[in-house]
Fold each of these.
Amino acid sequence: MKKILFVFLFSVLVVGAVFIIYVKSNPPLAISAYTSLKDNPTVKIIELENKGLQEIQLQQVLINDKIPEKIELVVSKSAPFEAEMEMENDPNITFYKLGQITIFPSEFIDRQAIGKQPQHYAVRMEAADMKMITIKYTYLKIPFTLKATLQTKK
């Protein structure tokens, strides 16, 4: 009986470890695009995509390893984010504090529900010289960090 219990507990631990290794090696958050606002190049819109199966909770965003002056999570119920886009007066775009809502998995977004359900997520931030962005988030209560270097046009 003790042998069966030991094998069962060992199996559960091995499966749990393999699951955590798999999730850590395949992070669910991806940057799908980024752009600057046409009238203000210090403001960047970084579009995020949740490629996982559960919701993502953003914890912190750093620019060049510093906390940005202003940062918001932007949710669009219509079109993807573009440089020429008018964000402030669009009824399909809402702004939230960073951890206020979760990012829904893109696999489960109903693309036919334009204007009714969130279609695209982005982070809008303001900083003078953006070279590197670090996004800290949780997925399945496991902490993750996404680091990306932003390309600048020359």
Amino acid sequence: MGVRRAAKGTGEFLTELVGEAVGEVILGLLACALLGCLALITYLSWSFSPRLTVAGAGLLGLFLAHGAWRTFRDPAKGRRRRGLAGVTAAGFTLTAAAGVFLLIYGAGCGCA
């Protein structure tokens, strides 16, 4: 009876270990692909029009700054974020999550 339980526990452990290893590899590849796409978009945008690239980066910075301000500001009691405030707060949150993802998984990427 004890051998069967030990074999079952060992099998579950190995399944979990392999699952985590495969998950780490997939997330690392996804981070490298995302980093490569961002570099390609920046390169193509800059080669098309440097002025437009700087203007777009400035507008994106304003969008994210407004989202950060709305996210960390205390909202009035009982009010939800609507319209532009909701869109910028969601955009900031998604961008921050993607940035953390790239920091964690993209740091180990050997593509840089």
